[in-house]
């Protein structure tokens, strides 16, 4: 998104970003792909470089549609990762000077271990039922690929 903003005038930035966000608000994978095409067409007319950047990233941006719909909102958001990175940065800034490399690894490892335990034991990012559905979907894909190969 930041790369696209560089190729759009500031006065048009909000409208352009809303247009791109509309891709993620679609009810199905087909609608999302269709909306991506419409956004690309619109951007191509006004800002061809921004459209090229979006087109290069299209498959990555739409990768979430390969998962069950229940997972979509969690997949396209990077908020938990950004929050974890901010916490690591805050903690490292508090300490500021480390005696050696191992101390950095130990502190970072302790923080990541604590976060992992919280994710496992505490609030779940994905519930077990939706993960079971995903695993079932994955095994069905593997079976169909095996049949095609043989």
Number of domains: 2
End-to-end CA span: 43 Å
Percent of sequence in beta strands: under 5%
Low-confidence stretches: none
Number of helices: 8
Helix content: over 70%
Overall SS class: mainly alpha
Shape category = flat
**What is the residue-mean pLDDT, rounded to a whole number?**
83
* Radius of gyration, taken over Cα atoms and rounded to an integer in Å: 21 Å
SSE arrangement, N to C: HHHHHHHH
Largest sheet: none
Number of strands: 0
Describe the structure.
The structure is a single chain. It is flat and about 55 Å long. The protein is mainly α. The mean pLDDT is about 85. Helix 2 (about 10-25) packs antiparallel against helix 3 and helix 3 runs antiparallel to helix 4. Helix content is about 75%, strand content about 0%. The protein folds into 2 domains: about 1-65; about 75-150, no CATH class. It contains 8 helices and no strands.
Write the layout of secondary structure elements.
Blueprint (H helix, E strand, L loop, with lengths): L1 H4 L4 H15 L4 H18 L1 H14 L10 H5 L2 H17 L5 H21 L6 H22 L1
Helix pairs in contact: 2-3, 3-4
Index terms:
single chain, 150 residues, mainly alpha, 2 domains, 8 helices, 77% helix
Can you give me a brief rundown of this structure?
77% of the residues lie in helices and 0% in strands.
